[in-house]
Amino acid sequence: MPIEKQKNNALLLCLSLSVVWGLGYILVPLGQRAGATSSFLCFLRFLLSGLIYGAIFIRKIKIKAKDLPIGLLAGMLLAVSFALQAYGQEYTTPSNSAFLTSMTTVFLPFLTWIFFRKKPSVLVYVSLAAYVAGVFVLSYNGSSFVFNLGDILILTSALTFALHYITVTYALKRTDSQTFNFLQLTTAGIVLGVFFFAYEFKTQIITPIAWGSFIVPLLALVLFSTVYAYSVQTHAQKLLPPYQVSLVLSLENVFGAAFSVIFGFEAFRINMVFGGALMFGAVILAQVVPSLIKRKQSQVKLRAIYGNAEQPKTVNGTIDKQTPDHKAGAYLK
After folding, report:
1. The dihedral of CA 31, 36, 37, 38: what is its sign?
2. What are 245-272's pLDDT values in tens digits?
3. Closest CA to 184 of 48, 42, 67, 75
4. Which residues of 182-198 are buried (b: 16+ CB within 10 A; e: fewer)?
5. Looking at the domain assignment, is residue 333 inside a domain?
6. Domain tally for the chain?
7. Structural domain of residue 12, as residue ranges?
8. Does a structural domain hold residue 196?
9. How many Å separate Cα 281 from the centre of its chain?
10. Residue 314 domain-assigned (yes or no)
């Protein structure tokens, strides 16, 4: 399959993942409402995800000593990121959580520049400016921009998520995706388990869990928002730069706000439409426009080559007669 088609398929998979992760902003509060503490929910999510992922790809997972440092680092970043996000969601709305997490997209081009010396194009900066404007529009509640403890925690998680993207890009150049995913998921589960048993185990013991209400969001988080999600992300980051993957996945925030309204977590606000449109437009500007420009340039180049091939000219501008060699394309070097 041509590399361009592989990249387009990867972008479509990222779009499907943005819907799945958008739904995740509803699944986490549903799990918390069922009685699970944030650390217990995250612990089960990643522990089960690691076990299921390992069972699916058991024949492809080949752990070597060189894989351990980067896999452990990615797992710790995942654990910190999701813990910060989960605790932040206790104090803010799903839409605020979604939109502030999207600041990952803003951090990534600069981190990519720092770590990989890949300077983003001007178009990326323009799209980021539009994206940040969309975040601010969405955060407006009618009288002011609301920013509380939960928002600070989630904004911090956006930075650690950005660092995780960078880690994934680095890791996939040195190890296979199945081994890396297994290591990062199980490491995150272990780290979150240690935190849970150290700080919230007693709280969870005295807090009853409504397992009938808890099991569905938990399984959805495990199977779709984690196992499927990180399989797609690592596949996409093999083909695309991290900030490009992040821009498409950032649409999760638009879907997260939509699901928040649909499931009754908050009331609809008109600025959701305008902010979401700005963010969506930013993604189109960063993803679709460069592809159209590149395609147009390729067409112009092909016309120039084959146009000249049809009527090859000499130095003085007169038209040569096409010899058999010309017809065979011998003049094209």
Report:
1. negative
2. 877 887 887 788 888 888 888 788 788 7
3. 75
4. bbbbbbbbbbbbebbee
5. no
6. 1
7. 8-300
8. yes
9. 17
10. no
